[in-house]
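Hey L., structure's done. Input below.
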Amino acid sequence: MQYLIDGPRSAVAGVFEEKINDQDRRVLNLSHDWLMRLLPFVLGKINRVSFGLLSAEQRTRAMTANREMPMSRQLLALPFVGKDLPSDASEFAHPDVVIGLTILAYRYVPRTPLFQRHRLRTHRHGSSVIIRRSSIGGELSGQVPTRVAVCGSKGPRWSFLSPR
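Output:
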């Protein structure tokens, strides 16, 4: 637990260097980054004010204005410039922030038809969300993992899986 709070500079880091393999160290460092940097940023945002998903009406208007709008813009969380006013062209740059904000946004509106069509699911007994790169048409940045599964029936568990 101390390592998750203090990261590689913690007093227990030397013990971990000797006892865990490289893969486990990477997971611990990613967990530390999420807890100390990304999660406070993501939780500081307000849904439909500073971020959110496009509503069906907003998506229709955007598609009429730009027939070539990428699927990632239709499915993932976008920055908002004001209450219920998404940015016209901007998207979040950091892939982990996009994942975190998208999961939060779908927690507020989990059952949209677009959500169902692209195999992004929430289960009735938990808050599982599955994001598959293949279902979004490969339009995401190469930095975003192929699959992200988040389960929340007994608390959040994050799994970042690499491409096949």
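Strands lie at 51-52, 78-82, 85-86, 129-132, 147-151, 157-161. The longest strand covers residues 78-82.

-- N.
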